[in-house]
Write a structure and sequence with these properties.
It is a single chain. With 194 residues, the chain is α/β, with parallel strands linked by helices. The chain has a single domain (10-158), classed as 3-Layer(aba) Sandwich (Molybdenum Cofactor Biosythetic Enzyme, Chain A), CATH 3.40.980.10. It has 7 helices and 6 strands; from the N terminus they run βααβαβαβαββαα. The chain has a 6-stranded mixed β-sheet with strand order 2-1-3-6-5-4, sandwiched between helices. Helix 2 (28-39) crosses helix 6 and helix 5 (97-107) packs antiparallel against helix 6 (136-158). The longest helix is centred in the last third of the chain and has 23 residues, at 136-158. The N and C termini lie far apart (60 Å). The relative contact order is 0.16.
Length: 194
């Protein structure tokens, strides 16, 4: 299991809800997520957007430039206004299927309905984007399911991206270990000449 400390990470909790955006509902899921991320050491900002694909995509894209972690809450269900996964996928560089799978698997311990969640995780630039359900319980259980992965994923995305290999030489210079032996002829070139 990974280290769950998020010290030094800037995080955005983005609540996606028409009701919260209009002032008709309290943002309970955003509050519990922000509290948990702060307890893990992250510096947390919060924002709210309505269930509109363009608003969601624009906010996630903008936040990716200044936040290492973006957690959206809401809009992962099955109603026509639940558009978070569709919106977020338009800005992801790639999806991380295991994140959504882990959240649904953990949710099954509480309810069989967890399999209907369209929660997901992915990468936008160097930011990790995680979409969790809008209910406070579903949101915090989903975050808890992936907490062991967060610090490692964020460190990997922050770089360096060398996987333990020596750093690349400066541009225009060959690596020190590069062979100076003459190239070996390719037998196919000889066959073509015959």
């Amino acid at each position: 299991m990974g280290d769950a400390s998020l010290g030094g990470v800037r995080a955005l909790v983005l609540t996606i809800s028409d009701g919260v955006a209009s002032g008709g509902r309290t943002d309970e899921s955003g509050a519990v997520l922000a509290d948990r991320l702060e307890a893990m050491g992250a510096t947390v900002e919060r924002d709210i957007v309505p269930d509109e694909q363009g608003s969601i995509a624009d906010r996630v894209r903008a936040a990716a430039g200044s936040h290492g972690l973006i957690v959206t809450t809401g809009g992962t269900g099955l109603t026509p206004r639940d558009v978070t996964p569709q919106a977020v996928r338009t800005v992801l560089d790639y999806e991380i299927p295991g994140i959504g799978e882990a959240m649904r698997a953990a949710g099954r311990a509480s309810t069989a309905m967890a399999d209907l969640s369209r929660s997901l995780g992915g990468v936008c630039g160097r930011a990790l984007v995680v979409c969790v359900p809008g209910s406070p319980r579903g949101a915090i259980e989903s975050l808890a399911a992936i907490e062991p992965l967060l610090a490692h994923a964020l460190a990997t995305l922050a770089g360096p991206h060398d996987h333990g290999r020596p750093a690349a030489p400066p541009a225009g210079r060959p690596p020190a270990s590069r062979s100076t032996a003459p190239p070996v002829a390719d037998d196919r070139e000889q066959e073509d000449a015959d």
